[in-house]
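HUMAN:
Just now I want nothing more than another pair of eyes on a protein record. I would be glad if you read both lines and explained how they fit together. I have put the entry right below:
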Amino acid sequence: MKSEKEIIEEVSHFVEEAVKHHDSGHGWSHIERVRRLALHIHEREGRGNREIIELGALMHDVGDHKFSIHAGPAEIRKLLAGLGVDAGVIEEVVLINEEISFSKGKRPAPEKIELQIVQDADRLDAMGAVGIARAFSYGGLRGREIYDPREKILNPPLLPGTSSHSASTVHHFYDKLLMLKNLMNTPTGRELARERHDFMLSYLDQFFREWNAEGDM
């Protein structure tokens, strides 16, 4: 029977290999940040099963449809069962993998605190300075315009949750990133989201001032 530390180490190696072809915003550094954020929220909230939260954070992007044709839940079940992880824990980790995405956030808030915590951590990493860097990195990967002034920015957005169809990366802020603050599940998540949300608003204000050459003439 492997120890919890050994299980985490083996899962980490598996995930690092699984995401090596993802862009830098969705690669191993993203996974590590989400794990740290999730464990921080868990400690602040004092709720949830730490093992499920850590494994769920590590494996939340396994089989990500943006990069992979593999079935994440099947891979998770196979790996964790082989490591001797309890069947109940495995199904909770699979639930996180299946339900974490932004589009699933249009549903009622999840009941499981472990899913709530990992979902908050993943959303927080899409916000603030890191979130801005990730957005432009992924937009460049997909050949998306930085900003297309011919397309109106609608608030509420025309395409809620359809980030892959945003007219530009700046439009993606309004289609997704600025919506995340109000989709947080936990008090700690909401607290951490406020600063990151305000930073994105400040960034957009500066972006449009520079785009329109305000004060440069």
User: Anything to note?
Assistant: The two ends are 70 Å apart (CA to CA). Residues 4-211 form a domain with the Hypothetical protein af1432 fold (CATH 1.10.3210.50). Residues 158-164 have pLDDT under 50 and may be disordered.
